[in-house]
Amino acid sequence: MRLSLTWVLAFVASFRGSLCVYWDENNTAATYNATALVAQGLLDYYTGLQYGKPVGMFSDPYYWWEAGGAWGSILDYWWYTGNTTYNGILKQALLAQTGDNNDYVPLNQSVTEGNDDQAFWGLVVMAAAERNFENPAENEPQWLYLAQAVFNTMALRWDDDTCGGGLRWQIFTWNSGYDYKNTVSNGALFHIAARLARYTGNTSYVDWAEKVFEWMKGIHLLEEDGTNLVFDGAKVEGNCSNITKLVWTYNQGLLMSGCAYLWNMTQDEKWHVRTWEFLNASSIFFNDSILYEVTCQGANSCNTDQRSFKAYFSRFLGLTAQLVPQARDKIMSWIHASAKGAAQSCSGGTDGHTCGQNWFYNGWDGYYGLGEQMAALEIMQNTFCLDRPAPYTAQDGGTSQGNGAAGTETQATNLSPLTITTGSRAAAGIITAVIGLSIVACTVWLVI
Ligand SMILES: *[C@@H]1O[C@H](CO)[C@@H](O)[C@H](O)[C@H]1NC(C)=O
Ligand SMILES: *[C@@H]1O[C@H](CO)[C@@H](O)[C@H](O)[C@H]1NC(C)=O
Ligand SMILES: *[C@@H]1O[C@H](CO)[C@@H](O)[C@H](O)[C@H]1NC(C)=O
Ligand SMILES: *[C@@H]1O[C@H](CO)[C@@H](O)[C@H](O)[C@H]1NC(C)=O
Ligand SMILES: *[C@@H]1O[C@H](CO)[C@@H](O)[C@H](O)[C@H]1NC(C)=O
Ligand SMILES: *[C@@H]1O[C@H](CO)[C@@H](O)[C@H](O)[C@H]1NC(C)=O
Ligand SMILES: *[C@@H]1O[C@H](CO)[C@@H](O)[C@H](O)[C@H]1NC(C)=O
Ligand SMILES: *[C@@H]1O[C@H](CO)[C@@H](O)[C@H](O)[C@H]1NC(C)=O
Ligand SMILES: *[C@@H]1O[C@H](CO)[C@@H](O)[C@H](O)[C@H]1NC(C)=O
Ligand SMILES: *[C@@H]1O[C@H](CO)[C@@H](O)[C@H](O)[C@H]1NC(C)=O
Fold first, then answer.
1. Cα 19 versus chain centre, distance
2. Which residues contact 286 (CB under 8 A, 6 or more apart)?
3. How far is residue 359's CA from residue 338's CA, in Å, rounded to a whole number?
4. Residue 177 CB: number of other CB atoms within 10 A?
5. Residue 397: beta bridge partners?
6. 244 — phi, psi (to 5°)?
7. Is residue 74 helix, strand or coil?
């Protein structure tokens, strides 16, 4: 008797406290409301506003790189919905983590940082330039400058000594993964080069993009003539001949949308064909038009990082739709079906808008985290991607100032693992407690 009374009280409490995600693709106001709730759920993982916690970082176990990814989702949230609620903390976060050299290799991260980690912060500042996000003060580094500094410092690590070129995964020899040339590092270099090319009009970046693409193709990380799938990487041992044939949404998306930028800028047909090849091959990531992480999701083995990959892919789908008009119908049908699935998965947690991992599961599947929240937010807000302008360039709308030599003026070369402490992984704390009760509450709410 006492137990059931407790349950009734808990039910009532969670019912009153829950705000549910209600998705109706034909009701714009409702989709904005739903997106706002999911965005709020994402920021629940942000600890940078708490006393003594580093600005820009999310709670444990989310690594620094994923924070860069999450801020990219928040930037898009502003851009696609016009909601400025988080712009202040976004700007503060982006400027807090630049590091002394303004290239997103901050001391706190530098000993463990990989090329891909740096690149994900490069992506968000690139987008800030392209969306003409409020420029930093004159005495602060500018968005374009930061993106160029990320590109330049990455490009300087290009390694011709093994495998005929390519970036290694890790920056430093002492980190495991230094012997691996991975696609996300190289794909991100390609992708950022493509975006800098289109933004600045400087064709040196096109040359770089071409060089990275040809190298990746050369060692068969990109199966350009067959499946058009993008594989994970290759160990340097054996001259990169042993390809790790895992596929991930974010790698496919980095290549696809990089090609879309290059097509949009150069109008060279080969980039158009390649955009389509990667786009068509992406069907492997869809189940009845609903996006999923094919390599790990079915087996429920996606790790913390992998659970955010669909967020970037969703973002890259939207960019591709903006830049390649012919691809819009195909992309938007995927985005709409996936957003609907994602939104209905966002019915978990005590808040009633915690998102799940599996978007074709009926309701919330019990998974939760920053990755799940970001992925749902990105696919939902990208349903608006054709209502907003395509990425600006310096010629048309972009005002951010840069410098072709950014990041190379004062290269920090004296980093030593002995003099730097690995620093903060933000303190633990599960933000969104998980009880099934509020799902029931939400269902009742929706029925009412
Ligand atoms: C939205 O409108 C389209 C076209 O009128 C229709 O096919 C679709 O079923 C509608 N969706 C919902 C959820 O009502
Ligand atoms: C959206 O939310 C606002 C308040 O935040 C509310 O007034 C409005 O009715 C909601 N619209 C829909 C369609 O749910
Ligand atoms: C803006 O976003 C915040 C956070 O997601 C939300 O609470 C607020 O209701 C949104 N405002 C409007 C007008 O949608
Ligand atoms: C290693 O691979 C690169 C790229 O495929 C190739 O150019 C080079 O000749 C290879 N080196 C050796 C020693 O096989
Ligand atoms: C290729 O890599 C896989 C995974 O690392 C390993 O199991 C396999 O033995 C390697 N094959 C060769 C020929 O080196
Ligand atoms: C992509 O698929 C469409 C059919 O859905 C086909 O018409 C087109 O030729 C394909 N493009 C490429 C480059 O494979
Ligand atoms: C695709 O989704 C359906 C449910 O809509 C599910 O039964 C099926 O197992 C899914 N397929 C894969 C490959 O996950
Ligand atoms: C480039 O993108 C713009 C903005 O969406 C679009 O209007 C234009 O047609 C695109 N150019 C090409 C060559 O596809
Ligand atoms: C063009 O980009 C290259 C590569 O980053 C750079 O070295 C060069 O200074 C840039 N040129 C101009 C005019 O900005
Ligand atoms: C670096 O780590 C220290 C120690 O955890 C922390 O106090 C500081 O805020 C961090 N700085 C940044 C910029 O994250």
1. 26
2. 292, 334, 338
3. 7
4. 18
5. 393
6. -80, 105
7. helix
Measured distance CA(190)–CA(368) in Å, rounded: 32
Q: How far is it, in rounded angstroms, from Cα 117 to Cα 111?
A: 12
What confidence score (pLDDT) does residue 223 get?
Answer: 86
Q: For all residues of the chain together, what is the average pLDDT?
A: 89
Q: Where are the alpha helices (DSSP H) in 219-300?
A: 249-266, 269-281
What is the pLDDT at residue 409? 78
Per-residue exposure over 195-227, b if at least 16 CB sit within 10 Å of its own CB, e if not: bbbbbbeeeebbebbbbbbebbeebebbbbeee
Question: CA 310 → CA 120, 121, 181, 296, 316, distances in Å?
Answer: 14, 17, 22, 12, 10
The residue assigned the tokens 């040196």 is 204
User: Is the CB of 39 within 6 Å of ligand 3?
Assistant: yes
Query: Which CATH class for the 5-447 domain?
Result: mainly alpha
Give 375-418 pLDDT, tens digit per residue.
999 999 999 999 999 999 999 999 999 999 999 976 544 333 33
State the closest ligand 6 atom to the C-alpha of 330, by its place in the atom list counted from 1.
5
Residue whose CB lies within 8 A of the most ligand 8 atoms, among 323, 328, 386, 387, for a mutation test: 323
Residue nearest to atom 4 of ligand 9 (CA): 204
Among protein residues, the one with the nearest Cα to ligand 1's atom 5 is 26
Could you give the CA distance from residue 296 to residue 288 in angstroms, rounded to a whole number? 18
**Phi and psi, residue 78, nearest 5°:** -60, -45
Contact of 63 with 428, CB cutoff 8 Å: no
Cα dihedral: 27, 32, 37, 38 (round 10):
100
The preferred substitution site among 19, 21, 32, 33 for testing ligand 2, maximizing ligand atoms within 8 Å of CB, is 33
Q: What residue owns the CA closest to ligand 6's atom 9?
A: 276
- Whether omega before 417 lies within 30 degrees of 0, making that bond cis, reads no
| pTM metric for this prediction | 0.91
Cβ atoms of 278 and 36 within 8 Å: the answer is no
Q: Residue 445: is its pLDDT beyond 80? A: no
Is pLDDT above 70 for 178? yes
**The pLDDT value given to residue 226:** 82
Q: Looking at the predicted structure, is the pLDDT value of residue 275 above 60?
A: yes
